[in-house]
Amino acid sequence: MRTRRNQRSSGLACGLVATLTAVFCLANTGAEAQQPPAGIPKAEAGPQLKPLSRPRAKPKSRPAKRARGGLGIGGAPVAEIRKEVENQNAQERPNLEHRRETQYYKVAIARADNSFMALNYYPALPGENPSVILLIHEKDRTSRDFADKIEESKDGYGLAAALQADGFAVVSIDVAGLTDPRRRDAAAKNDVPKAKPAATDGRVVEQAVNDIRLTYQFLVDRHNRLEFNLGKLAILTLGEGADVVLEWLSEATELPPLVPGRPVQPSDPRLKNAGAKVAVGAFDSATSRPSDVSALIMISPVAAWQNVKTVDRLKTLLEGSPLNVMAVGGTTDKESSDVIKQIKPIIERGSSRLSKVESIETGLHGARLLRFEPGVLERLTRFLEQTVEFQKNEWEPRYNLTPVAYRVMDAVSKTTAQAEARKASDAEKVAPKPKAEEPAKPKTDAPKAKTEPAPEPKADAPKPAPDKPAEPKAEAPKAEQPKSD
């Protein structure tokens, strides 16, 4: 047994030695094959290169969020666009003190029919990410209602100037179809465009909505100049102005009109949002968002204007929409008291907790309610702060797909604007006084007419009677003198 084990162990050892010897021989043979022949000179060794440093690992970046409020312009970073726009603004407005002295600018915007729309632009003071407010007047009035002095304002400001002092950028316009054809300002220049009266034009609603569209494109231009953030837009209306804005906002859920000979563009945003109930309306320059309007304020809304019914439009618009809406009206106002009651359950819905309806015990309507009712300005400012001013919405550049042609007509200083507002408020105070006294005059004169004529004939009747017989008594003795001679 031992001999067999010894034989096996010796055989394994011999096999292992033979295997190692064969591997060593193959390695030497490969090394000799790789060496160059003896006649070929060896290449000179060059300078040794430094070893490459280990590349740094790329940090994990978070996925970019989807842009909101507009399309990026050509993929350029926002910081570069900001720097370029700020340099351009610095060249156009080198003196900020002069800009602070300017209250507002009078701008004329060209319409498609070669007429002009009057626009007043109150720029926001230099600040970070300011909001913008659009003011729409009522029927048979003008944008002057927002410049006239508010009675409770200690600084003599109108609504536009008061909002500007709070940090907002403000724009007011004279809407075609709503503007009074009789100019309130008798000293207006001859070249100031005049709006056509609503009674002589059958396309009043379309003209009014078109003016809102032009104003929006003007806002896009100012937004791209970093003057305010269009994503924080609020609209304030008086009376029939709410119907014009509701008609403009309803364009988000309607199909684009079919024009003969013109194919429908597949990129039209109205095709994408047709029939949507969540859409707020008022399409911006981007096709991904339906609206920039964050808040809507209606003061003294009326039942209807032309073929636009306020309750129906508002119900269709706010169904499932997060738009914040505020309505203010007088309880004894004949034009808006019933409308306020009808729209209250529509506005105070669950999808917007900031929306509300406020009824005030007054009979004032529209511009008079805004100017003479105490506490209205404070309520409006508080609502705008909650819904627009403190809203977290970063500025982003926009495409201006349909730019408008406009011209700055005049720059009005603060002193001039305050003087105009005080003059207009004094005229408003004096105007209603004779109207209130006229109906009181016939009531006071009526009893005097009954009491005065009664004693007059009694006093006058005896006076002429003694005068007539007195004359013949004096003449009788003169006629008797020749008889004595």
What can you tell me about this protein's structure?
The chain has 485 residues and is of the alpha/beta class. It has one domain (78-257, 269-434): Rossmann fold, CATH 3.40.50.1820. Helix content is 40%, strand content 13%. It has helices at 2-34, 78-92, 96-101, 159-165, 204-223, 241-249, 269-272, 310-318, 337-347, 367-372, 376-389, 414-430, 432-437, 440-451, 455-460, 464-484; strands spanning 102-110, 116-122, 132-136, 169-173, 233-238, 293-299, 304-305, 308-309, 324-330, 356-360, 406-413. The strands form 2 sheets. It has a 9-stranded mixed beta sheet, with helices on both faces. A two-stranded antiparallel sheet has the order 7-8. Helix 5 (204-223) packs across helix 6. The N and C termini lie far apart (221 Å).
